[in-house]
Amino acid sequence: MNETATAPTAPLRARAEIDLAALRANVRALRALAPGAQLMAVVKSEAYGHGAVPCARAAVEAGAGWLGTATPEEALALRRAGGLTPERVRIMCWLWTPGGPWREAVEADIDVSVSGMWALEEVTAAARAAGIPACVQLKADTGLGRNGCQPGDDWAELVGEALRAEAEGLVHVTGLWSHFACADEPGHPSIAAQLTLFREMLAYAEGQGVRPEVRHIANSPATLTLPEAHFDLVRTGIAVYGISPSPEVGTPADFGLRPVMTLAANIALVKRVPGGHGVSYGHHYTTPGETTLGLVPVGYADGIPRHASGTGPVLVDGKWRTVAGRVAMDQFVVDLGGDEPPPGTEAVLFGPGDRGEPTAEDWAQAAGTIAYEIVTRIGTRVPRVYVNASP
Ligand SMILES: *Cc1c(COP(=O)(O)O)cnc(C)c1O
C-alpha cells in the first residue's frame, strides 16, 4: 500500500487520512461489546483499503488477539511485516485454493481454514513435509451457501479425518467456525436457523473428540447486535474501521464507533462558465445558468464509483456539492454555484461526518452499494496518510 509520512495538510492531489487513534478506540469499543470473547480484527484486502500493516499493528495495540485475512498471501505478509509475531498475535486465513502456500503458512504459525477434504489432504501433506503440526480450523456451512463444509455426511467425514490427522500429530484442530448470511438484517429468520445448526455441528464435532480453542461465527453485525452469537471469538471487519455494516443495524455512533478514513482531494481548477454548458463525458449535466465549476482530481481509477455520477456528495468550503455529470477515470466536476474558492481548496468526499462532511455510507447510498465497497476500493494511487500512529 502506498504510504506516506507527509503531514495530512500537505498539498497532495488526494489522500486517505487514516486515524489510527479512532481505529484503536473502535477495537476497544468492540471488545467492550463482546466482553466474553476474544477479538479478531479482519484486515483482509489491505484492511478494507485502510492499509493492512498499520491497521493490524494498531488493532493489536488495542487488544485484538487475532488478525484475520482472506488469502494466505495476506496472512504471510502480516507475519513478514515485523512485530506481528506468533507470541503477540494469532493470524488466521480462510480463502484457500488447491496448490496454495500451505507449508509456508504452517511454518509461519498461521491458523488455516479447511472446508473440505481436498484442503485437509493438502494441509496434512504440508505439515508432514514441514515436520510441524498445522493449526486447522474446520469451517461449517450453516446456511451461507458459500465456503464451508455441508452438515451431515460431509461434516462427519471432515471431522473424522481431521481427528485422525490430529492423532497422527499432523494437525491441531484449533477452531470450529462458520459465517452468517444475513446478520446485517436483524431479525432475519436465517440468523436463528444458522445459530441452531452451528450449535448442532459443534456438538457433533465435540462429541467425536474435537477440543477447539475457539468457536466463532460472529462478523461485525452479529458482534453489534447478537450477543448469543459471540461464542469464544468475534471476527470484526467493517466495525473496526468505524463503519456500520448497514443502516438497519444502526449508525456508527450508536455503538461508539468512529470512521477511520477521511478521503479528500485538492481542487485543481475553478472556473466560471455560462449557462447551458455541458459537463464531463456524455454531457449528462448541463449548467442551469452562469456558475462556477470545480475540478476534483480523483476518479474511478482511484476507486470513486462511476455509479455515483450525478449523485456523489462532496464538502467544499462548508457546503455540500454534488458530482456534476460523469465521474471520469481521474477526475470529476462539482458545480460550485458561483462560489470561487481558490484552487487547492480541500474537497472532502467522506470522513467521520462530524465536521459536516459526507460519510462513506452517504457515498454507498449515492452509488447504490454498501460502505464496505466504498472504502475497500480506494485505489493505490491515493496515498494513505496515517495520523495518531503512536498509542
Ligand atoms: C470479511 C469477513 C469477516 C468480517 O466481516 P465484517 O462484516 O466486515 O465484520 C468475518 N468473517 C469472514 C469469513 C469474512 O470473510
UniProtKB/TrEMBL annotation:
Enzyme class, first EC level, given as a word: isomerase
Q: Which residues bind substrate?
A: 146, 329
- Matching SMART domains: Ala_racemase_C (SM01005)
What name goes with this protein?
Alanine racemase
Summary of the function given for this chain in its UniProt record? Catalyzes the interconversion of L-alanine and D-alanine. May also act on other amino acids.
Q: Does the keyword Isomerase apply?
A: yes
Q: Please state which protein family the record places this protein in.
A: Belongs to the alanine racemase family.
Reactions mediated catalytically: L-alanine = D-alanine
Q: Does the keyword Isomerase apply?
A: yes
State the Gene3D superfamilies in the record: Alanine racemase (3.20.20.10), Lyase, Ornithine Decarboxylase, Chain A, domain 1 (2.40.37.10)
- PROSITE patterns, alphabetically? ALANINE_RACEMASE
**From which domain of life does this come?**
Bacteria
Per the record, the pathway is: Amino-acid biosynthesis; D-alanine biosynthesis; D-alanine from L-alanine: step 1/1
Q: What is its EC number?
A: 5.1.1.1
List UniProt keywords, sorted A-Z: Isomerase, Pyridoxal phosphate
